[in-house]
Amino acid sequence: xxxxxxxxxxxxxxxxxxREAGTPMICPRCEATxxxxxxxxxxxxxxxxxxxxxxxxxxxxxxxxxxPSRWANPWLxxxxxxxxxxxxxxxxxxxAMTIQKPTTLSEVVRSDDSSAPTPAAVSVIPEPSPKSASAxxxxxxxxxxxxxxxxxxxxxxxxxxxxxxxxxxxxxPGVTQHPPVVVGQAPPPRPIVPPxxxxxxxxxxxxxxxxxxxxxKDGEFKGKRxxxxxxxxxTGKIFFGPTNPLWxxxxxxxxxxxxxxGQFRTEWLRDIDQLWILSTGRFELPLGIxxxxxxxxxxxxxxSEIPSGFTAAEYKFIVQATLDMSLSRVHPLNEQAxxxxxxxxxxxxxxxxxxxxDPFLVExxxxxxxxxxxxxxxxxxxxxxxxxxxxxxxxxxIRTFGGQYExxxxxxxxxxxxxxxxxxxxxxxxxxxxxxxxxxSDGQPLIAISKVPGQRVVIDCAFTQFCHGPTERTxxxxxxxxxxxLAQNIAAYLAGKDGGK
Length: 501
Known about the structure:
The chain is α/β, with parallel strands linked by helices and 501 residues long. It has helices at 48-51, 55-58, 130-137, 245-252, 291-296, 312-326, 335-346, 362-372, 395-401, 476-479, 483-494, and strands spanning 3-6, 13-16, 24-26, 33-35, 79-81, 84-86, 90-93, 108-109, 123-125, 176-177, 182-183, 201-202, 208-209, 225-230, 256-261, 274-278, 350-354, 376-381, 385-388, 405-407, 418-420, 424-428, 434-439, 445-450, 456-460.
């Protein structure tokens, strides 16, 4: 049974465990040295609310308690720290009463770690005032059982220094329950867990897979309208037909994709946010050589002359499809259309000019001259894979994925480690109004973007990498590293994204 007595100096009522009878202690209010009365001291009844047992103990008899008898009362806790007995104080005082800590305390540590064992406590019960004496003698039962801290299931007499505990719940109505204090050793620091970087997966070209690794994110451009147009009537027969992955890739970003071939109509510009132009050009066969003879000539080519990734039969199909498009009826842009597109650019709308090798660069060349005073020209046999500097690509990665020349990083290359430059390509001229986003393996500008404030224009000189055949083996876009991601990034840039630049 706990011993209850008063401090002979300040008359505060104190409660302490029975086995401390006859030992000295320091009064927590006045710091006077007191000798705890003997076992024959007459205990004073605690208020009913303070003596109410925790639900964890209410159904047990004393003999059934899993703890030693000195732990059966949830108000009392004793812990052995460093071989010496330390009494930890759970102080209950009125708002007007201030308790000084004993002079023997050298350090106070508080913690929110509620999982630590509950330390020992001495309850300090304030003297009731005359006005509340009658209420204390007959306290009103609580509406519900108070939430008393449950003691641990077992106690060791040689335990490690305890962590400070969270405050005990308020036990006496109208009395502030202060958190207990812990003397001595501070708790060990909480371990710092570094953030875990997302795990990326890569496609067979060494480029990361995911909807959030490129310049645009899925659904980000919902409501934006993109028009893809070429003056070749047969553009959509094979290479840019309904199954081309470009359309789905742009739709994933949220774009509404419109595909048109043949005669250009300026009224289309009123209802779109960006325009992609696949340039036309008249391809003239040598006199007396029909298209069929040119297709048959593929069988005579040495293996070294066939573009990488194709068999002779597959390349023969590609040549046939190219002739079907380039020899079909063509509708180049007229002066009215050029002027309308110039105004479209000046209004801040996006334009991508796609060209290939000469002669398939008519519209790109004309608009580049009108807008930036440069030309698009050339017929360079490229067929190499670029790898992007500063993308943490290792020499082993370069060997594995066939990187052949290094290029500088750029927002249009976000999420692209390796990029196929195209088969036969052209290049765009140098201008202080243009920024080079990607160079070809000959060092010439392959992709350039406008530096004119308020303009969003991209000039890309290798449109064959976006061509799609009926099978994966005859599809440039499926066989070209980074082609789909590049097209998505260009569309995102034309819609206003710039990667933070």
